[in-house]
Amino acid sequence: MNPFADRNCVCELSEKEIIERICGNFGSSMPPPPFGAGDDCALIKKSLLRKNLYATSDAVIYGRHFDSSASPRRAGAKLMKRNISDIASMGASPFAALTSSIFSKNLSLEWLDEFCFGLASTAEEYGIKLIGGDLAGVEKDFFSMHLTLLGDSSTKPLLRSGAGVGDWIYVTGVLGRSFESGHHLDFQPRLREGIWLGKQKCVRACTDLSDGLGQDLRNIISSGEISAEIFADSVPLRVFTGGKASLSQALGDGEDYELLFAVRGNYMKFEKSFFAVFGYVPFRIGRIVNSKCGRPGEIYITYSGVKTLYNGGGFSHF
Prior knowledge:
Blueprint: H1 15-26, E1 52-61, H2 72-89, E2 93-104, H3 109-125, E3 129-138, E4 143-153, E5 168-171, H4 178-181, H5 183-186, H6 191-197, E6 203-208, H7 213-220, E7 226-231, E8 239-240, E9 243-244, H8 247-252, E10 259-263, H9 267-278, E11 283-290, E12 299-303, E13 306-310
Parallel strand pairs: 2-3, 7-12
Antiparallel strand pairs: 1-4, 2-4, 5-10, 5-11, 6-10, 7-11, 8-9, 12-13
């Protein structure tokens, strides 16, 4: 759906009226002030917080993260879900969000309403309150909304660092061709899995897959004298009506929003425990290895016993 129109667009409303309309569309997911919009800041009661507080921020931009083929509700839902995926990767639970939007005055009011409905319904699904935000106008045919999501946990945070030689590398789902398949809009963040993984002592590092396996894996092996070996035949490739992803697409496409994590010790015991909770086994796709020639942070792809250095990149947000 095209977000822009010549009539019935935001240019017909004042800034205050636009804010009121957006807040109205958020419905019960936005609490009354001072806990939601209405004051200069939103109040979060200290008694509501547990041990650790987490904050993340991601955006959706028209023409970069979605286009007119996507319904506004799906685009709004994506904004919330991609932030939830970040919170999940650290083993936390989301509870509150703030939005900041920049759009042109020819933005369709109907489109904006639908986008907000998609965002709010996803917030309600995951028990998240929308507690405030801001907006600003720019020139023609532009829309972006940025969301800051807060989460908390009573357990030790899952970090990207912490992986060591011998750890097994896992992903929670299939990879590649997320845009062509529509997965980048319709995925479900692995929140339950992330919270569970955060409680397992054998899980040593974790991140979400938004920029592609080849790019995000480097975040796990960026500290210490470690590299990664990926078993080409073990990487799960997305199959959909339009075709099947290749290994290079699984490594570089991005926008998969699965969890990538490292497990130390008995992988069979871990997989059995994981299956007992979630009814499926995550994909064991490789192992953390010693760096070769003193160059840490390298990725090797093993296929039929032959190791090849991977020099590819991932999804770019610029």
